[in-house]
Give the backbone structure.
Amino acid sequence: MTIAFAFDNSYARLPDRFYARLAPTPVAAPALVKLNVPLARSLGLDPAALASPAGVAVLAGNAVPPGADPLAMAYAGHQFGSFTPQLGDGRAILLGEVVASDGTRLDVQLKGSGPTPFSRRGDGRAALGPVLREYVISEAMHALGLPTTRSLAAVTTGEPVLRQQVLPGAVLTRIAQSHIRVGTFEWFGSRQDLDALRTLADYTIQRLAPEAAAAANPYRALLDVVIRRQAELIARWLGIGFIHGVMNTDNMALSGETIDYGPCAFMDAYDPATVYSSIDEMGRYAFANQPRIANWNLARLAQAMLPLLAGDEDQALAEGQAAVDAFPEQFQAAWQRVFRAKLGLARAEEGDVGLIHELLTRMAEQRADYTNTFRALATGDGSAARGEFEEPSGFDAWYAEWRRRLEREDGEPAARMRTANPAVIPRNHQVERALGAAEAGDLAPLDALLGALADPYAEPADPSYTRPPAPHEVVRATFCGT
Ligand code: AMP
Ligand code: MG
């Protein structure tokens, strides 16, 4: 069987200093663990061919499919606030781009595919646990309706990878609208390579923000589009209780997709200060810090783009500053849209924002389950919502006020609310359990979890997927596994 990707590789046609050309490094014994059949079809691929030995060889990096132009992308980045001029794909290879059935151009990337010139001290590999974690969470995000990279397949390599312990190696095939990051701009900005910066910006406009091309200042318009997308994305993360965990500038995509799932997690009990990532000792990337961090990252993007924003330095600074300064307001507007929808408030009224904050404050005080509190409100189960509060008197007062406010809504607020408040999220304890079983060779729990996550706004057939962890099941830390 042939693996017929309809490749058209625009990134590989950019100048040499945008990447290092190299093929993935073959592995000992590729074996398919997961294949995303609907996604394969939407890419014009035959799932049976992908699952055949020839297909698995491609997914493992043992065979380069016809038409691919494999390369590792160059990028820099601010990691935990400090700048690293050289990061780049240290364990990923972009095979090429395909145009999906809806016309979207998509990157096909192997992650865990061996060392590259950007690997520094890393081995270029990924372990099965983190690969499946990215598979599960990215597909859950997609089903929740958030912009995200997708996961086409996970294969094991038959080779061990050495982390804190010896783990089975794996490769993820990741699909993205593009892997251009804030750090890609920083790579050229920090090198003061103005030609490349302009080429990258023109390319990004054409591929990801064609509406910016017609503006009086297309580069400023590109920056504005990217900032608006991030404001929207972060508001939506907050709406579902998602914590990215490593919001470094190299992990922020200009497409507005959530990218680079490492120690990310969904909150169970609501606490705005929640941090899961074991490497985030200062809580820089805590749940409620994410808007501020996005704002900071976007300032790094504006800084990298400065020479493009105006010929005059002061003018460029003013343009960059004005663009970045728009973020808080855009985020606030997006956040209000998200949370008004969660509470069924279609008409805007003066007291709405206060009503939202009041509920969140009470939830935080009593560590109510984030997902289940909102879901109970959406399904009209006031007593289940109340049950989330150990001391419910504050909730009772809020609930009465909210019910009065809902009376001024037209139509069916409850039906709308069900589409804004998921029943199922990838809860840490369930993800860990499924990954543990998969590592031991039992894929049934993983498949069941993926099944429940595929339709998150419906009640799952198995209600255990809506249950918060019992005290002994609580996951306190997540690991990036690099
Ligand atoms: P991350 O924090 O996973 O987004 O990765 C940050 C940087 O480290 C990127 O340049 C990655 O390519 C690189 N990196 C992460 N893990 C490895 C690895 N096992 N081998 C080589 N490079 C890696
Ligand atoms: Mg990364």
Residues 250-251, 260 surround magnesium ion (ligand 2) (CB under 6 Å). The chain is about 40% helix and 15% strand.
